[in-house]
Amino acid sequence: MAAGAALRAKRLAWLAAIAPTFLSGCIPLIPQGAPVPPVPPRAPNAALVGTHRGPVAAGLGFSEGNARAALTAFATSCPRLTRRTDTSGLTKPEDWAPACAAAAGWPQEDARGFFTRYFETATVGGGEALVTGYYEPEIAGVRLRQPGFDVPVYTLPPDLVRARPGDAPPQPDGTQPLGRYDAMGQFVPYFDRTAIENGALAGKGLEIAWVADPAELFFLQVQGSGRLRAPDGTVIRLGFAGQNGYPYTGIGSVMRAQGLIGSGPGQYPGSMQGILRYIHEHPAEGRALMQQNQSYVFFRERTGPDTVGALGVPIAPRTTLAADPAFVPLGAPVWLHGDGGISGQTISGLWVAQDTGGAIKGPNRFDSFWGAGAEARTIAGGMRAQGQALILLPKGTLARLNGLRLDGPRSDGPRSDGQ
Question: Domain of 32: which CATH number?
Fold first, then answer.
């Protein structure tokens, strides 16, 4: 889902219609035989959906290694955290000042002490969490077209714009829709995936790279950023630049509706790997399947050694979460308790919300970042964890909040030995 400014701020509103059975921030996953849960209506923010005081942080059982990684990520986030407006309605920039002032010089060997000293915990709503996984993919690609590399990677077209007020009705979030102005000056929807793949943007100088496999490019678009590796070992790093304005259609859900997901004859696993195998084994049907998703992502070339999330800071494998900033302050530590579904990887422990994703919407919906490479791909592709979430807020925040119904400490909060 993904990463933000790099992986998943980056996988944007184009994923918003994705079902929990096919993701991202995201990576697609449809557990065998699992029912498809309904998409809940989205509440405006955490302050309105309801926030409750959680158990004391000292009782959560932070592991030292996990706490050290979270402290490093939190300290990295502080320059942005103390300046940005928190759309969740839970905190003000000045709330974070004491913890951020201490984080830079806090001894790593006492990372657990940092979180118990400066933070209190809260649940948003009931605290029931859904956690999927994302990673930074690497696929075969080159800068200039050559035999075997015939699939273009496009940068953001200059004619892709938001409608001027009055030219189109605003979207539910109040923003103007994306599209283009035609030769008559009329605002119209932008080219969809089928039109783009059939050449609507060809010859306009928008190609920044070429890849070998259209299905791998499709899933790179799901992740929102990644790497292209040429036969000579040259690497091009791609970041999210924008998308064409269409909502995302999860092709895993389409396959399930067609009876293609399962363990029977002719069926495929609901993971990203299983869906890729179907597309490769059935090229014509696979192309038609991908084109049912009208959304199309554009890229830019990234520079610098780090993958940067929506918060504008480098993200860290096994530490960074993508979250909905309407329900979690970006930069806030998050305590998760649960298993990793069929991936077998636990998500229990401390994380830091440093990224966003188009499919990562609503309270307690998270996407966990696992890095790059084959192992990360496997874990993220099979990650779908149900569990509990606690947001760590600066001490005193809950007492200060106005207009919230704050319950007393909960006796049923999640507990774990950490990661």
Answer: 2.40.40.10
